[in-house]
Amino acid sequence: MARMTTQAAQRLGALVAVLDKDENSPAAQVTALAVDGDWNDFDLVSEFAQSCDVVSPESDDVPVEVLERLEREGRVVRPSSRTIAATRDRLVQKQLLRDAGLPTAPFADAPTLDAVREFAATYAYPVVLKTRTGGRDGRANALVRSAGMLEQEFEQLHARGPLMVEAYQNFLREFAVVGVRGQDGQVRVYDPAVTRCVQNILQAVSAPAPDNFARYLSENGRKDGALYLTDLPALAGRLAQLIDVIGAFGVELFELRDGSVVINDVTPRPHFAGHWTIEGSMTSQFENHARALLGWPLGWTDMIAPHAAVAALLARNDALPKAADFVQAAQLRGAHFYWYGKASSYRGRRLGHVTGLAATDPEAERIAQMTVVALLGW
User: Fold this and answer.
1) CA 153 to the chain's CA centroid
2) Which of 4, 16, 131, 364 is most buried (most C-beta within 10 Å)?
3) Tens-place pLDDT, residues 153-170
4) Where are the beta strands (DSSP E) in 30-162?
5) Which pLDDT value is given to residue 377?
6) Whose CA is closest to 138, among 351, 348, 352, 353?
């Protein structure tokens, strides 16, 4: 994400400096202004920030305390420490959404096994365990299908940090919407996209998401207070104000079988579900993120292709491909190919993505998936 944001900002004429623990990080590869260092080292971060008009955290790993200290020193941080604090802890985020009257799955803090058992006694199995922080790569969730699975799953996840528990949602489909909020409060929203996860890892995206609201309405009626796909632009605007975000943000949702939606997660930065916007919209999520950080007017978010599909390029093992492995994939017509430049690999790691644009959704998905298949040999 930092790499693509850097490239988008550079196209606007901005000079982008990157501070990362990895001197060869994907973002560091595309700027001459890269600093190798730990963002937990406040003296280093403070010195780095002195040369920046605006500082933007790309990862939840950047401590909120560091961002707060930068703000006290008079540095401009976007999104702010308040926004990060409201979203990085999933339990805090869900409490904020619930208090605002927004729909979420039932949830609770899960400091102990007994707390989960008490929750499951109310809502029944299966339940979903999640780490409260970190793990937005899908590796910090566990679906607990029965009481017999609970202890093992709890111990494994609890080793990574404090947990929360949610009632399992028997959803019809998952989807996400990406929005962006400028410094003047203007919010622009991209078309929602259907998302598909395998083992909790987001692997494929298709936009625009088909809107079945009319059918749901005729079959079930509209539930009082419920939100639907047609309500997402207004929902995105409300969420942007609620967390006071400046820049791009992603909202992951579940669509239930009556057509209503519940919020799964809100992320205050560009989102994988918005990668299709690079080729598929007037202004990509990354350019609009950069525009917001710089105080520029936001670009238009209209789709410029009937359908767009994105497929993640996930590593099968710890091997990285060689140049020859890209030959077949690079020849596919209509495929827009991105490799992130990560220096190491492990099974399931997202190393790149491919976008297909077409007149129909199946054709766009075929283009994207054919590129993935062409690279499976490495």
Assistant:
1) 24
2) 364
3) 999 999 999 999 999 999
4) 33-36, 107-109, 127-131, 141-144
5) 62
6) 348
Assigned token pair, 299 = 């670009």
Residue 201 is part of which domain span?
A: 171-304
- Cα 94 from Cα 119, distance rounded (Å): 16
Q: Is 266 within 8 Å of 188 (Cβ atoms)?
A: no
- Answer yes or no: do 40 and 124 share one domain: no
Q: Is residue 90 part of a domain?
A: no
- What does the DSSP assignment read for 41-72? -HHHHHHHHTT-S-B---STTS-HHHHHHHHH
- Enter the DSSP assignment of 225: T
Length of the chain: 378
Which CATH number do you get for residue 342? Answer: 3.30.470.20
Q: Which residues contact 95 (CB under 8 A, 6 or more apart)?
A: none
The better pLDDT of the pair 169, 137 is held by 169
What pTM was computed for the model? Answer: 0.94
The rounded distance, in Å, linking the Cα atoms of 86 and 66 is 15
Identify whether the C-beta of residue 268 lies closer than 8 Å to the C-beta of residue 83. yes
Tokens of 364: 């766009």
**Residue 55 near residue 76 (C-beta atoms within 8 A):** yes
DSSP 276: T
Contact 248, 214 (CB under 8 A): no
